[in-house]
Design goal:
This protein is an alpha+beta fold and 101 residues long. The chain contains three helices and four strands; from the N terminus they run E-H-E-E-H-E-H.
Length: 101
């Protein structure tokens, strides 16, 4: 007798075939800090994009910038940046800016 488990989702398995992006979840309102890139310091090495867990760094031809719709605010890009071109800034500073508009 063979027992087969019915998976509850199509992503549930012992491995991933990586055909679809699994980390494209909107950030929502829970991010407390956001990465801000200093374009003058960035040397376009790509380490931030390489280490970003949700792969939300956008290639803007001469520097990388986060897609804030999907950025979780983990700060790994800032830690991996060898030039110190990425700073983690509290979201509250941007909320105040948006209220002025």
């Amino acid at each position: 007798m063979v027992i087969r488990k019915k998976f509850s989702s199509k992503y549930e398995a012992g491995w991933s075939d990586a055909d679809e992006l699994l980390l494209c979840l909107d950030t929502g309102s829970w991010r407390t800090k956001r990465p801000v890139v200093d374009k003058e310091k960035c040397n376009y090495c790509g380490l931030c994009a390489l280490y970003c867990p949700p792969q939300c760094m956008l290639n803007l031809e001469d520097y990388f910038a986060p897609n804030l719709d999907f950025c979780k605010g983990c700060g790994i890009c800032a830690k991996e940046c060898s030039r110190g071109a990425i700073a983690m800034v509290p979201e509250g500073e941007f909320a105040d800016e948006g209220a002025k508009r």
